[in-house]
Design a protein that fits this description.
The complex is a heterodimer of chains A (about 375) and B (about 450). With about 375 residues, chain A is α/β, with parallel strands linked by helices. Helix content of chain A is about 35%, strand content about 20%. In chain B, helix 10 packs across helix 14. Classes of the chains: A alpha/beta (about 375), B alpha/beta (about 450). Chains A and B meet through helix 2, helix 3, helix 4, strand 9 and strand 10 of A and strand 2, helix 2, helix 4, helix 9 and helix 10 of B.
Chain lengths: ~375, ~450
């Protein structure tokens, strides 16, 4: 026990290692590069392999290949790199590949402000590839959460055989904080469900019910393994049969949609009789904590819901928190990307107010109080 | 397992190969099968990796592990599989189209020497999407996108791979009698091996350009594209070199011991400190030590830095928050304390200083001309101290001034942080600077 003074990016690398990550590929990009530096040190130390790829496309390609050969893989980037990840995100979804993708968000679009924070990629991540199928994304607010949620992201990736995103922010990634990582309680480490070695026939995408996550046999293991970028049935052979195609698409959606509760991580600080609810995620949830404390000290009845899981939208938790309030405030370091999800869920008689800023600076508690017309 | 003899890996249940009559892909697929039979490859320990293009239809016809990925990216998946499992035989099979969109991967796999086999089926155009020109279409070639003749020149794929450092490169044609044997040679290379097969696209390129066997060889001659084994210069494969380099060069990182509070503090509420200096002044690392010193006194801390991308020049700012409680908001709207220790730092923070209220205390070098401000300004001879404590310890001395003047946490806690993090030699210099800085305050209060 004891404290360290480390940045969020190091905590991500440490969380990945705690989750037994043994393969890493990434391309340098501010403000995510230090994850690459840490992993180049940590992964070979643990017997695995970390490599700087020639570009973000290759980073993803290496990771998908390695993941299907049984490795636990991580890659990290920022907004411009996410653009290049797009095609392989689709591949990871259609191929049901467990992997963790870190996006240390910065001010976009394009090169934007490379060294400055923002939450540019909230909806971009949700719709980052063709197909529009559900994805999983977690967002840490602190260095400690960066560690914890990276570890949990690996569990979710393995459990649901899908890419899982960690959507962090320069403001968490390269801010140092005093933290005691060992004091953070982590769930049991999960591994993908594997096909028994004596099973005669192996189908890479076999399920009885749509939401069932298929067991996997790694490339180079005890079975002939197959993987395809094309529409396919359980065999991973291309199919053009509309019924089989629809079934597989339904499966990709169902395995995540049926498990929303399992992957919902929120922090609710609800006050009885509150008129106002603030919904936030990531670094700005910390400004909210200060604003809520200040408002309460002035006698305002106010609740806060912090989302650590942002995709899939924790709808039940949000709807529960919204019960009885008159106004919901959604502060974000973007032009209102999550606001539209809250508007979609809010009953008509609730006013939904975005506090949005995208000038590379944090939203302060004062701005939340003033622009949210709280106190 | 080992008593099984493989006579073919082609999967008859899938049906015959799907290629057009006369298409070279038929030959390549059959010769690849023959080569793999010759080598008696284990279908579970061999992966055929393909991407988009007609040749990508091949892998489904083999009873072996197969990975069919996105256009032009087969090399990246093949490398991922091989890096994860160096014991696997990984064969990537792609077309000339994929060499255009995925050209960088070709350069980089050759350069890295990752031990995959790359077979390029070069039929001089895109067959799958309707006969468009590719990076290997000859000049003058008629395709659906060069209807009046290709004005671009063809890329020498083998030459490109060789220039990038590929240790084994072979150029073949679909008419070679020994193609299967040469494919087997390629597969058994320990490092990266590339075999390009020139072939006919009977659907598009052949009819549009009257290209048959004779004309294909004439083209090779015209471009001085030599056939046969072009390079055979083995060098150590990537995975082996990776491990070797790591073992040889690894830094034994001794983890710093965690910080356990052993001093007390007098801080009642969260405070924000802004340090404004220059690159080369150790602003970042001194700020970190200052925060870690606070942690030795039982405080929580955060630190953010701001400096230009060109790290060795210009300003360097550090923002530190210290608090007896959990730190939520990590921004500093109004700093409680500010250290100005260089002209660059002053220039960068001039506007901020001008707006500071009187609650802020600024510690500045006495040679710097600060803008008008309501903040309380305390001037010290920081620069002059450089002569005694060393230039690299000036910021540490200035932080000692701040500590001694405010008593926010004990100097001894900062001394503990210095001893924990730094080598004895550097620590000695900084401990000396601590004393000098504190002395400066004690002397000034005597005056």
């Amino acid at each position: 026990m004891g404290y360290e003074f480390i940045e969020g990016n190091e905590a991500i690398a440490r969380g990945a290692m705690k989750a037994k990550c043994d393969f890493f590929a990434s391309y340098p990009i501010t403000p995510a590069s230090s994850i690459l530096h840490y992993m180049l040190q940590f992964v070979p130390e643990a017997g695995g392999l970390a490599i700087q790829a020639e570009d973000e496309i290759a980073s993803m390609g290496f990771c998908i290949g390695a993941a299907m050969a049984g490795r636990k893989v991580l890659t990290s980037t920022s907004g411009p790199g996410m653009s290049l990840y797009s095609e392989n995100i689709g591949l990871a979804i259609i191929g049901e590949t467990p992997m963790v993708i870190v996006d240390v968000q910065r001010q976009g679009p394009a090169t934007g402000s490379a060294t400055k924070g923002a939450e540019s990629d909230i909806q971009f991540t949700r719709w980052s590839t063709s197909g529009g199928l559900p994805i999983i994304a977690l967002s840490p607010a602190t260095v400690g959460e960066a560690y914890e949620l990276t570890y949990i992201a690996f569990n979710l990736a393995e459990k649901y055989r899908t890419p899982v995103f960690l959507l962090t922010n320069k403001e968490v990634g390269v801010t140092k904080e005093s933290v005691d990582l060992d004091s953070i309680r982590l769930p049991r480490l999960l591994e993908r469900k594997r096909v028994p070695s004596d099973q005669q026939v192996y189908y890479p995408h076999e399920f009885d019910t749509l939401e069932e996550v298929p067991a996997i046999s790694d490339f180079g293991g005890d079975h002939i393994a197959r993987y395809t970028t094309s529409t396919h049935d359980k065999t991973a052979y291309l199919t053009t049969d509309p019924d089989k195609i629809q079934e597989m698409i339904d499966h990709y959606a169902a395995k995540i949609n049926a498990a929303v509760e399992d992957m919902t991580l929120v922090k609710a600080d609800l006050e009885d009789g509150a008129d106002i609810l603030v919904i936030s995620y990531g670094i700005i949830s910390r400004s909210v904590a200060v604003a809520v404390k200040e408002a309460r000290s002035q006698g305002v009845k106010i609740s806060s819901l912090v989302l650590q899981t942002i995709w899939p939208v924790p709808e039940k938790a949000i709807q529960t928190a919204m019960r009885g309030v008159k106004k919901v405030i959604v502060p974000e370091m973007n032009m209102g990307q999550y606001l539209i999800e809250i508007e979609r869920l809010a009953p008509r008689d609730i006013e939904v107010v975005g506090v949005n800023k995208m000038n590379t600076t944090l939203i302060s508690p004062r701005e939340i109080l003033e622009r949210g017309r709280i106190a | 397992m080992s008593d099984v003899t493989y006579k073919t890996y082609l999967n008859e249940d899938i049906g015959p190969l799907p290629f057009c009559p006369g298409c070279g892909h038929n030959t390549i697929a059959k010769m690849l099968d023959k080569a793999m039979v010759k080598l008696q490859l284990d279908p579970k320990k061999t992966v055929i990796v393909t991407d988009i293009g007609c040749i990508g239809l091949t892998c489904r016809h083999f009873k072996m592990s197969a990975f069919h990925g996105l256009h032009g990216r087969s090399i990246t998946y093949a490398c991922g599989l091989k890096l994860a499992r160096p014991d696997l035989t990984v064969i990537a099979l792609k077309g000339d189209g994929a060499c255009g969109i995925g050209g960088t991967h070709l350069l980089n796999v050759a350069r890295r020497n990752i031990g995959i086999t790359l077979i390029i089926a070069n039929n001089l155009n895109y067959g799958m999407t309707g006969g468009q020109h590719s990076v290997t279409t000859p000049t003058g070639g008629i395709t659906s996108t060069t209807p009046w003749g290709n004005v671009e020149g063809p890329m020498d794929l083998c030459g490109t791979a060789i220039a990038a450092g590929a240790p084994w490169v072979y150029r073949a044609t679909m008419f070679d009698k020994d193609l299967a044997d040469r494919l087997a040679d390629a597969i058994t290379q320990p490092g990266f091996a590339m075999l390009e097969v020139w072939e006919l696209c009977s659907a598009y390129y052949t009819p549009r350009n009257e290209l048959r066997k004779k004309e294909l060889f004439e083209l090779l001659e015209q471009y001085h594209f030599q056939a046969g084994l072009l390079v055979d210069k083995p060098r150590p494969e990537y995975s082996a070199r990776y491990r070797e380099a790591y073992e040889k060069g690894k830094n034994v990182i001794t983890n710093k011991t965690p910080i356990v509070a052993k001093h007390s503090h007098k801080m009642g509420k969260q405070i924000g400190i802004l340090i404004a200096g220059s690159a080369g002044q150790k602003i970042k690392s001194s700020a970190t030590l200052f925060a870690e010193g606070a942690m030795f006194a039982g405080l929580n801390a955060t630190q953010k830095d701001d400096y230009p991308i060109t790290v060795q020049t210009g300003h360097s700012l550090a923002e530190i928050i210290l608090s007896p409680d959990r730190i939520d908001y990590t921004g500093i709207d109004i700093p409680d304390y500010m250290l100005v220790v260089s002209q660059d730092g002053l220039n960068k923070s001039r506007a901020c200083i001008a707006k500071l209220p009187e609650s802020t205390v600024i510690y500045a070098d006495d040679t710097l001309e600060l803008p008008d401000t309501n903040a309380q300004v305390r001037k010290f001879g920081f620069f002059r101290m450089g002569k005694d404590v060393g230039k690299l310890s000036v910021v540490t001395a200035a932080l000692a001034v701040l500590l001694e003047d405010t008593g926010m946490y004990p100097l001894d806690a900062l001394a503990d942080a210095i001893r924990r993090a730094q080598s004895p030699r550097i620590a000695a210099a900084n401990l000396n600077a601590l004393e000098a800085g504190a002395g400066l305050v004690r002397n000034s209060s005597k005056d």
